[in-house]
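Colleagues,

For the teaching module next term, I've prepared a clean inverse folding example: a structure given as tokens, and then the sequence designed for it. I'd like students to try predicting residues themselves before seeing the answer, so please don't circulate the second half yet.
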């Protein structure tokens, strides 16, 4: 079955003389081997119907691995099947790694036609069941239109396989109920989704989400949008490379309009946003999750800097702090480079005294990295992480001095609408 975690390589048929063909064949052999094993498991499974029946002080916290949203980490294992009769949708899906397609039993001809164009796994619906090309049952479909029907839907301990649920009266709460009911079972539950937005809610319902979605669309953009969502969410499996930088100068510069970014997620010690005056180097600005004698903890907030500063957003992009607004996404990064996406809930811009902070990677480096932040004890930069030792996590900007070490994200300096480009640029 198609899975983002699969080692299979989905591709449009390629002439054998192309240089990459040998690699593709090797990958395909691995893929087919896994599919045969999978189908054998299905064939050995007895055909069974699922019955419709703490107070923390600033600068003294040990770096911690924050337990990020489970849905973020599990997204790479989610499966996507495509239900369509549109060849352009098929092509877009295959090019993005989704090769399992659902057809009605009368569409065998269309499945055969597409199989000549691309390497796909065709599945066929017949009398409430889904079969593979060899006639083996791989899933059962249940249509649910009333709350009473939903209540009858529950897993059986001895059932192993796939279940596809089609909510005819689509609502969010039923999606959550399905996740709760099947959590911990051996059944992989798919939900028929008629848009990327529906698919996203099924994949994230009650944090864990369903095991997969059946995207039933005739619009190429729906495939592109869902893949873009997967790409953004799968970024959390990677670690950003953060560099140790040494502070060279700290001094007050006067008043300016600074931005507080309030997220729809809670942050933990060591986490914050990547912000900088120049895109070539972004400082890890810590959240206000730590208690202090000055103000209560606000673990959803980062006092991020003035309106002109860059902030890291999903997809390797940047945005000006002044452009952020409710509903936009930013990258939350911790002391070890782990990252996740978070939704902006509110942005506050107020005039406050600012402090200019400059740093270098080493003494001989001619490149200066800088950031302006509000002069306040609750605003802090994150220190380098060294092993698992208990150590200082952050330094408030009011205590920052030349020689202190902080974390920096190095990247290309030239940007166009937040996207990194290769271009000559000088910024001071």
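(Answer key — instructors only)
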């Amino acid at each position: 079955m198609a899975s983002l975690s699969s080692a299979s390589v989905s591709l449009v048929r390629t002439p054998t003389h192309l240089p990459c063909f040998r690699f593709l064949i090797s990958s395909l052999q691995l893929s087919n081997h896994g599919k045969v094993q999978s189908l054998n498991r299905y064939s050995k499974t007895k055909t069974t119907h699922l019955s419709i029946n703490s107070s923390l002080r600033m600068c003294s916290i040990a770096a911690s691995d924050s337990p990020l949203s489970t849905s973020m980490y599990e997204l790479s294992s989610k499966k996507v099947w495509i239900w369509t009769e549109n060849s352009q949708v098929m092509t877009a899906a295959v090019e993005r790694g989704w090769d399992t397609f659902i057809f009605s039993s009368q569409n065998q001809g269309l499945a055969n036609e597409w199989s000549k164009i691309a390497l796909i796994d065709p599945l066929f619906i017949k009398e409430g069941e889904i079969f593979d090309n060899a006639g083996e049952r791989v899933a059962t479909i249940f249509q649910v239109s009333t709350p009473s029907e939903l209540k009858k839907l529950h897993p059986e301990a001895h059932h192993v396989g796939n279940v596809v649920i089609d909510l005819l009266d689509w609502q969010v709460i039923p999606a959550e109920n399905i996740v709760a009911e099947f959590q911990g079972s051996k059944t992989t539950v798919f939900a028929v989704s008629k848009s990327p937005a529906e698919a996203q809610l099924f994949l994230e319902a009650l944090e864990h989400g369903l095991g997969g979605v059946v995207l039933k669309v005739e619009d190429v953009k729906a495939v592109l949008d869902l893949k873009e969502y997967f790409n953004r969410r799968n970024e959390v499996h990677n670690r950003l490379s953060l560099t140790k930088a040494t502070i060279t100068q700290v001094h007050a510069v006067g008043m300016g309009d600074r931005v507080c970014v309030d997220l729809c997620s809670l942050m933990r010690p060591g986490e914050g946003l990547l912000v900088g005056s120049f895109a070539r180097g972004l400082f890890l600005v810590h959240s206000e999750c730590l208690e202090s004698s000055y103000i209560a903890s606000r673990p959803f907030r980062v006092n991020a800097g003035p309106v002109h500063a860059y902030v890291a957003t999903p997809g390797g992009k940047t945005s000006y702090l002044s452009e952020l607004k409710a509903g936009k996404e930013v990258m939350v990064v911790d002391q070890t480079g782990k990252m996740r996406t978070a939704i902006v809930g509110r942005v506050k811009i107020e005039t406050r005294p600012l402090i200019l902070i400059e740093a270098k990677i080493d003494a001989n480096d001619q490149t200066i990295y800088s950031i302006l932040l509000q002069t306040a004890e609750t605003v802090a930069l994150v220190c380098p992480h060294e092993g698992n030792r208990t150590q200082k996590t952050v330094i408030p900007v009011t205590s920052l001095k030349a020689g202190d070490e902080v974390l920096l994200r190095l990247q290309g300096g030239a940007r166009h609408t937040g996207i990194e480009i290769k271009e000559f640029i000088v910024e001071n």
